[in-house]
Records
---
Amino acid sequence: MQFNQFSQPHQTRPIFQRFYASASGNSSLLVVEHRNGAVDGSTLNALTAAQALGGDITAIVAGGAPETVAKEIAKYNGITKVLVAKNDAYSHNLPETLAPLLVEAQKKLGFSHVFAGHTAFGKNVLPRVAALLDVAAISDITGIEGADTFVRPIYAGNAIATVKSSDSIKIITVRGTAFPAATTAQNDPAHEAAPEADTAALSEWIGEELIKSDRPDLNSAKRVISGGRGMKNGENFQMLYDMADKIGAAVGASRAAVDAGYVDNSLQIGQTGKIVAPELYIAVGISGAIQHLAGMKDSKTIVAINKDAEAPIFQVADYGLVEDLFKAVPELTQKL
Ligand SMILES: Cc1cc2nc3c(=O)[nH]c(=O)nc-3n(C[C@H](O)[C@H](O)[C@H](O)COP(=O)(O)OP(=O)(O)OC[C@H]3O[C@@H](n4cnc5c(N)ncnc54)[C@H](O)[C@@H]3O)c2cc1C
């Protein structure tokens, strides 16, 4: 096997700079996403964004039994207060019930900024909050240039926009890969009950089907191996799982592989899937369409295995192997 080193035109590093507010007056509400009694990693990235802004940061934790999560988030650097909204109506993260709660909190406590991770949860809830407050939602930010000025990718990451908002309240979702996770400190902020809000929503939670996996989580894995249409079918993904097991990697996929039914859509990486930036990304049988690159081009080292030397994935790859994947993957797995 021979690997060729490619140039690295993809390495547009996330923009992250600390904005020192002048006696800022900023006051942020951090919406805490949590699951099974633990804070979701995306919230810790959003917290770093809020810290970069400066000013007070109040975390809000809503749920049927939010106490454990409230205690956990309180430990993080920069949290000045924790609002606890305990109500069974908040147990299932329904945006129809959460949005009025966040609006009430903003109205009573006058936050200048509301932050959440740019996850399915954040994307679901925050635009509603923005609409109810009659302000624009500023989504998927990768940088903060000031209290009203934010950086965000557009056109599937092909252009970077710097947007200035004239709204009095900024409702923001944060791209997790652009901000490091916040760290814990010797923190002991006050806990308060969140303001009461109307929980009589129009929608009702019926049930959910979650894919359970013992593998590393795609969003936080340091190594990711993804398969595309070139894998030919779902059974062949076993080759990628075997390689992933050797190096403790998560497995992802292109949309073509998901649409063809090879794997579940929770594995999809790209513009309409997950955005990842692991230390190592191995793309197997993936052509490198811009919509796929939008989800992985900030990975530190990109390896591509493709039998077509002209495949666009090689333009962003640090290491490229022009080879039939059915020969290359088992050989590589054996050598790892
Ligand atoms: C609005 C919109 C949103 C989209 N969002 C996403 C998204 O989030 N994520 C995403 O991935 N796509 C997305 N797409 C789809 C995207 O445009 C591409 O169609 C898709 O990424 C192609 O997937 P692929 O590379 O697996 O398939 P293909 O483009 O078909 O490439 C398959 C590759 O496998 C190689 N190959 C085949 N057999 C072998 C073999 N035996 N050994 C080695 N190599 C082999 C081929 O040379 C080829 O390069 C989106 C498209 C649109 C319009």
---
Amino acid sequence: MTLPNHFAPEPIRFAYWVPNVSGGLVISKIEQRTSWDADYNRKLAQIAEAAGFDYALTQIRFTAGYGAEFQHESVAFSHALLAVTTKLKVIAALLPGPWNPTIAAKQIATISQLTNGRIAINVVSGWFSGEFRAIGEPWLDHDERYRRSEEFIRSLRGIWTQDDFTFRGDFYRYTNYTLKPKPADPQPEIFQGGSSRAARDMAARVSDWYFTNGNTPEGIRAQVDDIQAKASANGHSVKVGVNAFVIARDTEEEARAVLQEILDNADPDAVKAFGHEVKNAGKASPEGEGNWAKSSFEDLVQYNDGFKTNLIGTPDQIAERIVALKDAGVDLALLAFLHFQEDVAYFGAHIIPKVRALEAARERRAEAA
Ligand SMILES: Cc1cc2nc3c(=O)[nH]c(=O)nc-3n(C[C@H](O)[C@H](O)[C@H](O)COP(=O)(O)O)c2cc1C
């Protein structure tokens, strides 16, 4: 038999969203036992590590808005999670503008040294103009934000890998700069978030990982084909992570009922205001294919379109859909939950083993073929 185009022998990786901002990962008044505080998050990181998660992703927000009333800072918080785990890699979100590459390179190199190379970064390019205004940062046009992010990434890589690093960009400049100590091995992996053409082009040139919003396997495959074609033309290789909100129950009806309850309790004003903000942020993206370009009201109740990926059903259905994502070229599933500690433990006990069994069966079929 023939296997799907993108089927990769490596096991799919799992990451979870660190709830380091308040309100959980849905804009809904449904009861959530998730907390944004440090103790809850330290315990969650240990649960996730034991459950078989490879990565945790922190978020960066500088101001409140649409639910995130309190927000812990991403780099400091990532280090706190690394301090209580031994294998988990933590991805710290960095926003060029508030961060410059000099400070970011130094901070991350030190954390890398302190944690045997378990720190990674997620370069985000900004969607919240009100946040930039509040902190006195210029709000650049969409594609200019990506031009700056690309220079930010090139600067980080140069500082981390070269002595006497010299760089002449429009946003950043270095002259014979040598960082000591450099990060520990392995080098910090560079993730990025965004789905627009500018985001995909940047991924195909400089990022190790492309993170995108929730989507169907067909929607993901179109992005993967585009990125991988461009990356191979550039002699670059990039992996893909997709967001999903997981609701696992004994029956599909029960899982769908939970989704309905989340939607019924959505805060309509907050969801509409968030929708206005993100669509406005993507407007300058000339081709109109940004992260939220096609999001409906229901999609926006989860910040990154996580219901669209449809990991909502029984453990068997969820495992099969994860393998379908892998067939579409996904290397990592980035997951959010309603009650993080309980749901992450459940996912590790009941869903990851099913995914591994399906992958092993695929592998055997591939060998036989
Ligand atoms: C997985 C993921 C994580 C993100 N995390 C953050 C974050 O912590 N802070 C932030 O301001 N933006 C975050 N973003 C938003 C992106 O940086 C970007 O602004 C947004 O996806 C719009 O990009 P686009 O219009 O190019 O598609 C994230 C996006 C994704 C996909």
---
Amino acid sequence: MNILITGGAGFIGSHLAERLIALGHRVTALDDMSAGHPDSWRKRRKAANSQWSAVP
Ligand SMILES: NC(=O)c1ccc[n+]([C@@H]2O[C@H](COP(=O)([O-])OP(=O)(O)OC[C@H]3O[C@@H](n4cnc5c(N)ncnc54)[C@H](O)[C@@H]3O)[C@@H](O)[C@H]2O)c1
């Protein structure tokens, strides 16, 4: 399934994305980087089956 997650660099969003990718889903995560965790963002954006986008 293709799934869009908003706030994907945040605590809930990044963990949700990681779990859904592990279950075989294709995840697109959007985040405006107003908060969240840059390390999580950098680590998880390298995952296969995922596409991460920062919204200006
Ligand atoms: N180690 C821990 O247990 C731990 C760590 C952090 C947070 N928490 C808890 O997690 C909860 C918060 O988690 P969360 O994931 O809701 O918050 P979060 O701040 O971690 O994530 C929210 C994300 O949404 C993004 N965002 C905000 N507005 C946006 C917009 N208009 N467009 C796109 N992106 C946008 C932010 O940049 C951020 O990355 C709190 O209850 C907190 O106590 C626990």
